[in-house]
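Dear colleague,

Thank you for sharing your sequence with our group. We've completed the structure prediction you requested, and as agreed, I am returning the results in plain text so they can be pasted directly into your records. Please verify that the sequence below matches your submission; if there's any discrepancy, let me know and we will rerun it promptly.
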Amino acid sequence: MVIRMEKHHPFWKKNASFQYTYCFGLGVMSMGHMKSIMETQDFFEDILELNSSTYACGVLIPKQFINNNFFIKNRFYEDLSSMYHIYAKCENIYKINAGLYKYRINPNSIVHTANKKKIDDYKKSATEMLEFINSNYDIDNHLIETYKCEVFRSCYIMSGDDKYLDMAKMISKKVSYNKLSLKNKIKIYLLRSKILTKIFIKIKNN
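Please find the predicted structure tokens below.
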């Protein structure tokens, strides 16, 4: 897929060639919803900064990128374990800022219920993605470590088990504030205190 943009467009990029579009329909390109155009490594950094997600919903993918074994069978968080392989095949990625996908909050969904298998699958999928990114892209380690903190923080939210906050706190001490965004600076600061983290999570969820 090749989409060319006029030079006067605020997101024009020289020799822009795209194989993947982060949206549900190309029609939105003419409606002023364009947010950004990113090279693959930049998009992975965006994921690690938690500015982009690994959800399979809301993504338009060329059919040839997907095979019959795209999602790992019998694994929760199957999109986390699969979508990064799609992103790795792309030269550039479109992100748009438009409400094209809506869903109901389901109190019985994966993200609102937890058991040991769900937590183990989440950790395994996140670890596999981080190892892949670390092995194939030149990304600062502080982003990898920051994302690990988020993984263990999420495990705590799912399970209520303090051991995950202890792991997040231990990793957070290795992270340098200097290269973090303000959002992640605050998150790492909170993770260095279990009490502050618990208070923040409780406030956010109420």
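Summary note from our side: The helical segments are 40-48, 83-88, 116-136, 141-159, 162-172, 182-191, 194-205.

Kind regards,
the structure core
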